[in-house]
Amino acid sequence: MSRRFKAVLFDLDGVLADSATAHYAAWRRLADELGIPFDETINERLKGVSRMDSLDIILEQAGQSYDAAEKDRLAARKNGYYRDIITTLSPEDLLPGALDALKACRTASLKVALASASRNAPMLVERLGLAPYLNFIADASKAARSKPAPDIFQIAAAGVGVPPEDALAIEDAAAGVKAAKDAGCTVIGVGDRETLWEADHIIADMTVFRLEYYITGP
Ligand code: BG6
Ligand code: MG
To answer: Which residue, 88, 102, 123, 196, could crosslink 133 as a Cys pair with Cβ 3.0–4.6 Å?
Structure first.
């Protein structure tokens, strides 16, 4: 799958930042408070999915329905829990291998964009010190549709002036892999093949990301 890519589009939560666990902890707290069953299997379906769509998935297990105003309040409550956790993050909370991957992109003179479904992406970028490595940030606030729609990856590629076909996307969520594939990118899935089957290539985590392999071959 080696090619002369011109840009790398990184997902944030679970690829660069150790924040997927913070989303999980915040949803778990909300679900526990509401007495709604919630486990790792349900959590896997939330990865890459917008805040409101995630809430809808969690509420599938609730024995009652919630109106739009109640759902807004629940989503805001979860976001408060999540922000409490991420305000404590620092550059040390970048996932292992993430910084090396960003530096390798820069050394290879590739454009780098963030393609995140999170409205908290700008805050995480600041907490983690990512700004110097990014040419463009595409987050949920810039896209009409969230992942698995291709919009965020299309916006990320356009933001760095590269056709999606010339971009390598890095994703840890099934919804994100689909989004990037449908945008026309080549996709590296970070995680397991069973979940991320649609990816062009799978790596277990970012410590085994080898840019030279993807851009010039082994
Ligand atoms: C994605 C996460 O990056 O962002 C999802 O994988 C999360 O778990 C989504 O729900 C939206 O995040 P936020 O910060 O806008 O609630
Ligand atoms: Mg992710």
So the answer is: 102
